[in-house]
Design goal:
Blueprint: H1 2-10, H2 12-18, E1 27-29, E2 34-36, H3 49-56, H4 66-81, E3 94-96, E4 103-105, E5 113-119, H5 124-139, E6 146-152, H6 161-164, H7 173-184, E7 191-193, H8 199-203, E8 211-214, E9 220-224, H9 229-244
Parallel strand pairs: 5-6, 6-7
Antiparallel strand pairs: 1-2, 3-4, 5-8, 8-9
Length: 254
């Protein structure tokens, strides 16, 4: 995914126009869930051209021969679009919380709508989304049935350029926890720490800034290559209305 990220930054002109237009925001109801269309686009369409240019300055995008970079990217995109070894379902986990002692268990919070993304210090899009998701969490702070959090996963650009030079790949759980605590200061969301074995990151497809939505019944109803707070807000609002309406199959949000 590192190579994919670099190509996406090069495609900043496309990102400025795309916005939400490339994603189908509709949903369909099954016997047990309200399911949304996955967002497996590989362009950074959550950001303006200016924002992407700012992110480009944080990483070295010229490390690889461009043709080699494109071939590697195509391989990675094909692998992910075909599942990348991921079973598209909810994978339970219990992880430590960066900000304080204690753990968070996905299964133990059944009955809640749970949205989470992966992030890291050296992941520029995740750094931006941290602020946006924090604003989203404030919107739902009086909604006891909604939980938002981040899983601190794999460093996307470890040790890259001046900004991320102090952050090589962590060599211990202690070092990774220290990175996660620093990342947590970028916003107000709970930050969970995946282990050095990257078990949760791997279970959900090894996507450095992937986003996922799990409904109150434990169904994985959405996954995205890149986190986008606007899309999650749309889906969470829709789910809340669907539950309130009694989970009808012919549901239309008003």
């Amino acid at each position: 995914m590192r190579a994919a990220f670099l190509v996406l930054l090069l495609a900043s002109g496309l990102a400025g126009r795309a916005q939400l237009n490339n994603w189908d925001p509709r949903w369909y109801a099954t016997d047990s869930a309200l399911v949304f269309h996955d967002d497996l686009d590989y362009y950074l369409n959550a950001y303006s051209t200016a924002e992407i240019k700012a992110m480009r300055k944080q990483v070295n995008i010229w490390r690889m021969n461009f043709d080699k970079l494109m071939r590697q990217t195509i391989r990675e995109l094909r692998a992910y679009s075909e599942g990348h070894g991921m079973e598209p379902r909810t994978h339970d986990f219990t992880l430590p919380i960066a900000q304080h002692e204690g753990t968070y268990s996905l299964k133990a919070n059944q009955g809640k709508i749970r949205a989470f993304m992966f992030g890291s210090v050296s992941n520029p899009p995740a750094r931006v989304q941290m602020e946006r998701w924090s604003r989203l969490m404030k919107k739902y702070e009086k909604e006891p049935d909604v939980q938002l959090f981040v899983i601190y996963g794999r460093e996307l650009h470890p040790g890259d350029r001046k900004k991320f030079k102090p952050y090589p790949l962590p060599k211990s759980e202690y070092e990774k926890a220290a990175y996660a605590k620093e990342f947590a200061q970028l916003g107000t969301l709970p930050v969970l720490i995946d282990g050095l074995d990257e078990a949760v990151y791997t279970a959900y497809g090894r996507v450095p800034n992937g986003a996922y939505l799990v409904d109150a019944d434990g169904n994985l109803v959405f996954r995205a290559t890149w986190a986008d707070a606007r899309k999650l807000e749309h889906m969470i609002d829709t789910l809340l209305k669907w539950y309130k309406a009694g989970r009808p199959k012919g549901f239309e949000a008003k």
